[in-house]
Amino acid sequence: MRKKIVAGNWKMNLTFEEAEELVGTLAEELDGKKKKCEVVLCPPSPYLEMASDYADESGLHIAAQNVSEFDNGAYTGEVSASMLASMEIEYCIIGHSERRKYFGETNAQLAKKADQLLEAGIYPIFCIGELLEERNANKHFEVVRQQISEGLFHLNKEEFSNVVIAYEPVWAIGTGVTASPEQAQEMHAFIRGLLAEKYGSTLADETTILYGGSCNAKNAAELFAKPDVDGGLIGGASLKSDDFLTITQSF
After folding, report:
1. To 10 degrees, what angle do helices 241-248 and 16-30 make?
2. Per-residue pLDDT of the chain (251 residues; tens, 9 = 90+)
């Protein structure tokens, strides 16, 4: 049975004090309570150690927002997978549309990042999704197929079994526009079909596929009710403790 996950991507937000207050509130609210999903927090890298300390006591899981494609060495400003592993970070987002857009990350680079994470024992949360013009041109399936095949299909079955997919239509990120539950389900089913073609139906059925793109406390339950939507990669709503907690209970 595949994992249900709600991951909160804080992006480049919050001071240290604000971050500690938020993670502390979430940890207190979730400590000892039955969780309907795995709850993952993705704070900025300077806050990972602090967040990990809280996570140990409350059953939260911590993810980094990015990782270097390189091993340790002369790469000023980069953070390696082995560094994250040494802090017991469990997950790491790679391929977020903002990284692709603003930092020019390619599928080839992301394939290397996936390799680095898996070698370090960290679960990649691999982001994919189309631009508005690509959807309007009816190229959205083609775009997603290329992103997955070039970024992940070099992995063998055992390696891929540790990957989480996050579908985030770029036109719905930070815009307040959300893909309809039907649009999300259509793409998630398409993705699962691609995985079945490559790795077989068993592995495809066990792969967690998250929805990202203006998922919030009001629409999460309707999105998560779809059979191929296994949770969400949450942006702005993850910065509000009440909203994020509501989303984690939306299964």
Report:
1. 40
2. 899 999 999 999 999 999 999 999 999 999 878 889 999 999 999 999 999 999 887 889 999 999 999 999 999 999 999 999 999 999 999 999 999 999 999 999 999 999 999 999 999 999 999 999 999 999 999 999 999 999 999 999 999 999 999 999 998 887 877 789 999 999 999 999 999 999 999 999 999 999 998 899 999 999 999 999 999 999 999 999 999 999 999 99
- pTM across the whole model: 0.97
Closest by Cα among 231, 226, 233 to 212: 233
Q: At how many degrees (to 10) do helices 181-199 and 140-152 cross?
A: 40
- What are the boundaries of each domain within the chain? 5-248
DSSP 32: T
How many whole angstroms separate alpha carbon 160 and alpha carbon 67? 18
Q: What is the DSSP letter of 14?
A: -
Q: Please, which residues bridge with residue 7 across strands?
A: 40, 233
Length of the chain: 251
Domain 5-248, architecture per CATH: Alpha-Beta Barrel (3.20)
The answer to whether residues 151 and 213 touch, using CB atoms and an 8 Å cutoff, is no
Residue 194 one-letter amino acid: L
- Active-site positions read 96, 168
Question: b or e along 155-165 (b: 16 or more beta carbons within 10 Å of the residue's beta carbon)?
Answer: beeeebeebbb
Which residue carries 């500690």 as its tokens?
20
Q: How far apart are CA 209 and CA 5, in angstroms?
A: 9
